[in-house]
Design goal:
Helices cover 35% and strands 15% of the residues. It contains 13 helices and eleven strands. Helix 4 packs across helix 12 and helix 10 packs across helix 11.
């Protein structure tokens, strides 16, 4: 993507709010009972009316475990009014600012980034829940060298922690946990390191601890030179692990039916991943050219229905950190389940 005026404005906004410092329900009719795989034949999930135009939504083409890519692979956009239009790779810290300005129409990043973007005046809304943390499928993992001597939270004072961006889960979940264990987080050097570089960077000693998300955490998990300290499940039992999908406000207003089709497609894909984790790993490995043995998966919120506790959790943290004024953003400002056809259904 070219760097233009709106992108520069988005990046300035980003700097304002962070860069400074068990199986789910399977939707009926979609699955082969013997294999659990998606059927290739049969009626589409949404049948367009005659004359309905397909809306292309702008989306990043990143090397990640992502429900948009899986939904497309599984055929969940077929017969709908929505189709992804990939616009190239976009660095993680830029995703939410670019959703907020409309340079991309959808993006998935953690709740605190969305809250901060809304507080700064950007036009976006969470329309679908995403990943959730399970003990066996955490949202992120923490790795050190085996010979580092680092085994407790207090050992990290004076050390360098690498993580994928300021303003998101890796920063705030980690700082909250460290403070709870008596660590002065101001004595830690915080360095942005992309997930796909975290394993190598900690192994070579350029950082002391790497916080890595799936699918790339699998390489570090299997690296004999490294030791896993924790996962985010160990830190907060998953309260901070919801990684939702957000949409640009103008896109939502102009294309409500296409928005609904996107949310339906990713909800179906999330349920499919929960029921077919190994197949999902294979698709991801093939798509990004990664060795299957190193690919880790996410688990997803059932039907991707957004709940309020994970949002309030981050509002409280952002207010306590002084990142947003107290009372400026309410939970209802951040999300809507209006476009999720499964909202209100029992799981």
């Amino acid at each position: 993507m070219s760097v233009n005026t709106s992108r520069r404005a988005a990046l300035k906004t980003l700097a304002m709010f962070g860069t400074a410092g068990a199986a789910s329900i399977i939707l009926p009719g979609c699955w082969d009972k013997e294999s659990g795989a998606a059927k290739s034949a049969g009626a589409p999930a949404v049948v367009k009316s005659v004359g309905d135009a397909i809306v292309e939504f702008k989306y990043p083409d990143n090397p990640s475990f992502d429900l948009i890519y899986l939904a497309e692979e599984l055929g969940y956009f077929e017969g709908t009014r929505a189709k992804p239009k990939y616009v190239g790779k976009i660095a993680a810290p830029q995703l939410i600012p670019l959703v907020g300005t409309g340079e991309i129409d959808f993006g998935t990043r953690m709740v605190p980034l969305v809250i901060s973007a809304i507080a700064s005046g950007l036009d976006l809304k969470v329309v679908s829940a995403g990943g959730k943390t399970l003990e066996e499928a955490p949202h992120m993992k923490y790795f050190v060298r085996k010979d580092s001597g680092i085994r407790t939270a207090k050992d990290l004072e004076g050390k360098t922690i690498g993580f994928n961006s300021f303003g998101a889960c890796a920063e705030f979940v980690t700082k909250t946990y460290l403070r709870q264990h008596g660590v002065d987080v101001n004595k830690i050097n915080w360095l942005v390191v992309p997930d796909n570089q975290g394993e190598q960077t900690v192994e070579t000693g350029n950082i002391d601890l790497a916080i890595i998300h799936p699918p790339h955490s699998g390489g570090a998990e299997n690296n004999p030179a490294l030791h896993k300290l924790w996962s985010d499940y160990d830190l907060d039992r998953g309260l901070g692990g919801m990684a939702p999908y957000s949409a640009h406000g103008k896109f939502i207003r102009e294309h409500p039916e296409a928005t609904r089709d996107v949310v339906r497609a990713v909800a179906r894909a999330g349920n499919w991943v929960n029921a077919n984790p190994e197949e999902a790993r294979k698709i991801t490995a093939r798509r990004i050219g990664m060795d299957l043995g190193k690919v880790e998966r996410y688990a997803y919120v059932e039907n991707l229905v957004v709940t309020e506790p994970p949002i309030q959790y981050y509002i409280d943290i952002l207010e306590s950190e002084g990142k947003i004024p107290r009372g400026k953003v309410k939970v209802k400002d951040v999300y809507t389940n209006e476009f999720n056809p499964f909202a209100g259904q029992k799981v």
